Amino acid sequence: MSSVAGGLVGILVSDFSKEASYLCRFKTYVEDFEEKKSSLDAKRIIVLQAVEEAKMRNETQVSAEVLKWLRQTDYYISQEDPIPMKTCLFGWCPNFCWNYRQGKKVAKWTREITDLIKKGDFSRVAHGNELPGIEFYSQNFIDFESRESEFQKLVNALEDVNFSMIGLYGMGGTGKTTLAKQVGILVKNSGAFGRVIFVVVPSPPDIKKIQLNIASQLPLYLEEGKEEVYSRILWTRIASYDKRVLIILDGMWEELDLTDIGIPHGSNHMNCCVLITTRNSRVCDVMGSQRTIGLQTLTTDQDALNLFVEHVGITKGDLMFNEYMNRAREIVRECGGLPIAIVTIATTFKSWPLREWKIALEALQRCEPLHNVHEGMTQVYDALRSSYDRLEGSAKHVFLLCSLFPQGYEIPLHLLCKLSVGLGLFEEVHNCLAARSKAIRVKDILKSSSLLFEPKEACVMMHRMVREMALWVSNKDVQVIMDSRTSAKSHIRFLFWSRDDLPSQFDGTKLEILVLWIKGKVKTEDSYSIFEEMARLRVLVLHCASDHKYVTVSLKLLHSLKNIRTLILDAWRLGDISVLKVLRGLEIIELTNCLIDELPDEITELKNLRSLGLRKCKIERNNPFEVIERCIQLEELDFVLNCNSEDWKEDGEIENIDEVVPDVSPPTLKRYSIACPHLKYFYHDDNGMLNCFNTENLKSLISNAMFKNIVRTAEVLELGEVRGVGWKNLVPDIIPLENGGMNDLTKLCLYSLVDMECLVDTSNYDLDSKVEVFSHLVQLFLDGVDVRELYRGPMISGFLERLEILKLRNCKNLRNIFSDRNLKLPQLKVLHLINCSAFQSSIFQSSVAQSLEQLQELIISDFEELERIITYESLGEGIVEN
Q1: Which H helix or E strand runs over 765?
Q2: Same domain? 249 vs 109
Q3: Least confident among 371-375, 813-817, 850-854
Q4: What is the DSSP code (8-state) at residue 370?
Q5: How far is Cα 427 from Cα 448, in angstroms, rounded to an integer?
């Protein structure tokens, strides 16, 4: 009982002391209050300054916590300072009651102000309004019929949760950005993504700017001065979303490290998907795009017209609407389906009278700058030029070289290579094969940059607007003249000139390449002087476009071109070409559809000659291979027969060609195409990289040494109708097994070879050594070949293991392709057996079934046990009978 009483007394004493302090220490409480109030006022000024600074950063949304704090500080700061002491009885006695109450209130205020001061340490006082993401770009899009496929591919790829990186590429101005925005809005509205963020990637890339842009759309505050943790903060925020996040990185020119930015990707993409748009498809590759979609120009006239009408603003109610629409169709046709050009011209033409449209259209058709839309077209050219500006080294020169050809011209890759070599664009390589490889790499760079496209295999072409941009950029160096009214500029470097005759005179002192298309007869005597001042000319192309067959031109007019390296002549009657011996720097000669007396011995004196082309030329006398095989430095030969060997027979049949042609072969020959104008069974790949040989009418023209060298190294080979040679097989009768077994072959066709018994015979060989035969062969055709089997003797490893197409026709002695159980055809997809009457049906037995597992097409007809045709369209879809 005493302890309880003692505790109660202690509490009473403590409370009394506290209450008494409000009276006894009144002055101290007042001084503390004034001090804390001053500190609070200073703190409030700091916070207000921070709010103003945030507003300068466009962070106008002051946090609720800060606003509450400021209201509380306003209350205390607005309070008047307390009177130090109050007295009563005319000042003789303190006013104990008032002083007690006032002291207690001041003490309470002081505690609350102290607490407010502590709470005033804000890490962030405001934030920006949440910037709209993809919703900001919502507008009325035009649905293009020709874009439906790409649009749907992009939507499907984005909705596939297995894809975290998708690429969209195309040339400048095709509408990649517009399509990406449109698809982004669609997948956001469909619920496939909870948030879609659109970021324009600066050039050059600015990581901090990209990070701040992404953060503003999340929204997320990134504190200034702490850039080193931005990426982790962004990664954490993006990964925290329950629904998928789509980040569109628009206009990328080069690879970006997404980890440095803070974007989840790869195996740790955390429900984040990235869509990149770029002009260069290689960016998609290096970024690891799992699906890459190419966007081309508008492919239908109606789509282009709809876009033009939308921006030019004409309606059906307008006066002369039909006339405007007719003119509009012609205008958009000149834009080549390029959206940026269509929109720019439409915007410029808006409100123009119809007569001005006609004038502008005529200028467009002449490919001339429009005086009234020069600024607008400059915008188009600038948009395209940015791709050109990023090219490096020889790629820029090859690009400008392509612009030299007329609009719509399909430039053969082999021609582009020869012009580039002549100009010295590939000086770092030292042989023709390397130069061709370099040309293909440059072509791929230009193609991936969307500056060139391939209308067909081994040809490139420029979009009209890209070509005009190129000529606009290079107007001081490159000129294309398509009419007789225009004169050649002085000091031009690259010149294409279409005219009726050779020019009599012009300033060509700076010319490095001259392409002349002559449409009429040539007055050679008046034109000798035009080449005299062309000391810098390295490439000359003379093309006869006349309706007259074999217009005569004398090569004597070229005698002054001492620095020329590439000479290409097309469709001329040249007669004696021995004058070429004075052009000691010649590295490339190509004669196409020309008429010449003969291939003269003087050609062997051109010690720099590395490439010789005789394509469909008529040679009046003598076998050209007598000279060709003595050009011991020759690296490539392109010989396409125009007529049969009778043309070189002066004294009847050539019984033994080895008595006419020395048994030699150019030791440096690496690339060749020696064939008739059209191969019987294979497409002639004109990209200059396939070694192609066809023996029809040619075997009697070349020596045994050259023949065997060609057959041994060929990639595409057709042998047929060669009688009296006694070949029973290809290996070893033609090529010894020790020499590599024709292992470069990818396509082989044998026809009308009645003596041949098999392809390869290893009966007399010890196969301990590792030798491969036909291990790269993909297509094999036999027609009218009396082989009994494909292979005889011990099986060599790798034989026909890559074969995909096997077509056998009229092989009447062939009984079975699987006579050796070790023969496997694991890649075989197509098998034709036509009129092979001795063939056995054991092909269907289970013992060989494993060789037919990949078979997609089987056609069998006209042999003993099965007379109908059966086609396996797909093993999984059953049999279709014809």
Answers
A1: none
A2: no
A3: 371-375
A4: P
A5: 23
Domain closes at, from 233, 267, 294: 294
- Per-residue pLDDT tens over the stretch 713-751: 899 999 887 666 778 898 888 888 876 668 889 999 998
Q: How confident is the model at residue 136 (pLDDT cuts 50, 70, 90)?
A: low
Same domain, 836 and 761: yes
Q: Which two tokens stand for residue 135?
A: 């919703």
Query: What is the arithmetic mean of pLDDT over 297-317?
Result: 85
Here the CATH number for the domain that contains residue 330 is 1.10.8.430
Q: Give CA–CA dist 798/824, Å, rounded.
A: 9
Rounded to an integer, what distance in angstroms lies between the CA atom of residue 466 and that of residue 336? 10
- pLDDT score of 661: 46
Distance CA 665, CA 374 (A): 59
Instruction: Say if residue 774 is in the same domain as residue 864.
Output: yes
246 and 337 belong to one structural domain: no
Tokens (6 digits) for 481: 């003249």
Is 565 part of any domain? no
User: Are 330 and 411 members of one domain?
Assistant: no
Nearest CA to 785 out of 757, 760, 748, 815 is that of 757
Residue 285 pLDDT class (50, 70, 90 cuts): very high
> Looking at residue 24, what is its pLDDT?
53
- CA 273 to CA 197: how far, in whole Å? 10
Asked if the peptide bond before residue 264 counts as cis, ω within 30 degrees of 0, the response is no
Residue 878 dihedral angles phi and psi, to the nearest 5°? 95, -160
Q: What CATH code is carried by the domain that includes residue 193?
A: 3.40.50.300
Helix (H, G, I), strand (E, B) or coil at 285: helix
Domain assignment present for 631: no
Domain boundary among 441, 475, 509: 475
Question: Which one-letter amino acid corresponds to residue 642?
Answer: N
**Block residue for tokens 């009768």:** 733
Question: CA 115, CA 124: separation in Å to the nearest integer?
Answer: 19
* Mean pLDDT, range 466-493, rounded to an integer: 88
Cα dihedral 484/490/492/498 (nearest 10): 10
- Considering the domain architecture, whether residues 358 and 331 belong to the same structural domain is answered as yes
Structural domains in the chain (count)? 5
Dihedrals phi, psi of 304, to nearest 5 degrees = -65, -40
DSSP states of 373-410 as a string? SHHHHHHHHHHHHHHHHT--THHHHHHHHHTTSPTT--
Measured on CA atoms in the order 545, 546, 548, 551, is the torsion positive or negative? negative
Under 8 Å between Cβ of 28 and 109: no
Q: Across residues 323-348, what is the average pLDDT?
A: 85
**Structural domain for 30, as ranges:** 22-127
Torsion region of 173: left, alpha or beta (phi above 0 gives left; psi -120 to 50 gives alpha):
left
636-689 confidence digits (pLDDT tens): 999 988 754 444 444 333 333 344 445 566 788 888 988 876 666 765 555 455
The pLDDT value given to residue 724: 61
Q: Would you say residue 627 lies in a domain?
A: no
Which residues does residue 541 pair with via DSSP β-bridges, in sequence order? 515, 568
Please give the model's pTM, rounded to 2 decimal places. 0.74
Q: Is 475 helix (H, G, I), strand (E, B) or coil?
A: coil
Domain identity same for 800 and 858: yes
Phi, psi for residue 558 in degrees, rounded to 5: -100, 0
- Please state whether beta strands 611-615 and 636-640 pair in parallel, antiparallel, or not at all (unpaired): parallel
Query: Does 58 score more than 70 pLDDT?
Result: no
Rounded distance between C-alpha atoms, residue 84 and residue 102, angstroms: 10
Assign 511 to helix, strand or coil. Answer: coil
Please, is 849 exposed, middle or buried when counting C-beta atoms within 10 Å of its C-beta (0-12, 13-18, 19+)?
exposed
Query: 281 with 218, same domain?
Result: yes
Q: Tens of pLDDT along 405-464?
A: 988 889 999 899 999 999 999 887 888 888 888 998 999 999 888 889 888 888 999 988
Query: Is residue 563 assigned to a domain?
Result: no
pLDDT > 50? residue 566? yes
Q: Where residue 424 sits, what CATH number does that domain have? A: 1.10.10.10
**Interior angle at CA 410, CA 406 and CA 413, nearest 5:** 120
